[in-house]
Design brief:
Layout: H1 7-15, H2 19-26, H3 33-44, H4 55-73, H5 78-92, H6 102-115, E1 120-122, E2 125-126, E3 129-130, E4 133-147, E5 150-165, H7 166-171, E6 180-182, E7 188-191, H8 200-219, H9 225-239, H10 245-252, H11 261-277, H12 287-309
Parallel strand pairs: 5-7
Antiparallel strand pairs: 1-4, 2-3, 4-5, 6-7
Helix pairs in contact: 1-2, 1-10, 4-5, 8-9, 9-11, 9-12, 10-11
Length: 310
């Protein structure tokens, strides 16, 4: 009996950083051969992407792409892959101080290289892995966002003209990725091209998700990535009326402590839903049932974080 391609399974593996599992799954489907061959070209044959930018900037992006290949495709231990990347940049910039941290290289040499060509640069880790966000245009707007604790106005910076949108975007060829983030200053950054600004996806999965992060970061210092994502994902489930995001979270779920906050949070959501349903199939729940359970779980989480972080 033949099986049909399920994009939730495929995307779920990518979100977890399991590129080999995603490619192995893809290989089963004859109608996905073109996409499968693209993965082989990039990650097996090392046919890296280049852009219409300065050659020196392309060389920097290729060093990041080699890191993606090592950590996600060759399964080199994350710290070792990061060290290999650091060494490549060390030689690229002809640096002398061998004790320098990679964070310093990103914040100084790499950022300055892109700033000099009028790009904005954000380095660091997303979900446990390196992968920069690099863009040219910004636009500032204000939005009133309703959460479970009330309505509040948030500043949103719409970012566009990207040449790099992190590791998930890269290994999914632009199909999955971070839609935005909050830096800790309460300002929401949004990758504009990822959304129709009138759709529920933007209103809920970007505005409400990131606003919840902003609120939690303000109220609870040093909240873990898993707790931040757990609460923000519950908010998505509470306010989503057009999409069944629970099904998506099922495929993203992973309990491995080596995995990222998104996968760990999805795993916790699935576990908590299962407790509320006493074994009933979660995929059969209606949108209204999902919203009701999510509200209960969010209220329970409010009490938990008060104790845990205060």
């Amino acid at each position: 009996m033949s099986i049909e391609f399920n994009k939730n399974i495929f995307y779920g593996e990518l979100v977890k950083g399991n590129l080999n599992g995603a490619v192995k799954y893809l290989k089963q489907f004859a109608d996905r051969i073109e996409l499968y061959n693209k993965y082989i070209s990039v990650f097996e044959k090392e046919q890296y992407s280049t852009f219409e930018i300065d050659d020196r900037l392309n060389e920097i992006l290729i060093i990041y792409q080699k890191y993606y290949r090592e950590v996600f495709y060759l399964n080199i231990e994350a710290e070792k892959a990061a060290e290999n990347m650091k060494n490549r940049f060390f030689h690229f910039f002809n640096m002398k101080n061998k004790k320098i941290e990679f964070r310093e290289i990103e914040e100084n040499e790499i950022a300055e290289a892109f700033h000099s060509s009028s790009f904005q640069f954000l380095g660091g880790k997303t979900g446990g892995y390196f992968g920069p966000y690099i863009w040219k245009k910004t636009e500032l707007k204000k939005y009133d966002v309703e959460l479970q604790d009330g309505m509040k106005e948030y500043t949103v910076i719409l970012l566009s003209d990207f040449i790099s949108k992190g590791w998930i975007d890269y290994i999914s060829f632009g199909e999955v990725g971070t839609g935005g983030w909050v830096d800790g200053d309460g300002i929401i950054n949004c990758i504009k091209e990822s959304y129709n600004l009138k759709d529920e996806s933007f209103q809920v999965s970007l505005l409400k998700h990131e606003a919840q992060h902003a609120m939690d970061q303000l109220n609870y210092k040093n909240m873990s990535s898993e707790d931040l994502e757990y609460r923000a994902k519950l908010v998505e489930l509470i306010y989503s009326r057009e999409r069944n995001l629970l099904k998506q979270f099922i495929y993203e779920a992973d309990s491995s402590k080596m995995n990222n906050g998104h996968s760990l949070a999805s795993n916790r959501i699935i576990d908590e839903f299962a407790k509320k349903q006493n074994g009933e199939e979660l995929e059969e729940l209606s949108i209204e049932e999902i919203r009701s359970i999510s509200k209960t779980l969010f209220k329970e989480s409010n009490e938990e974080v008060k104790i845990k972080y205060n």
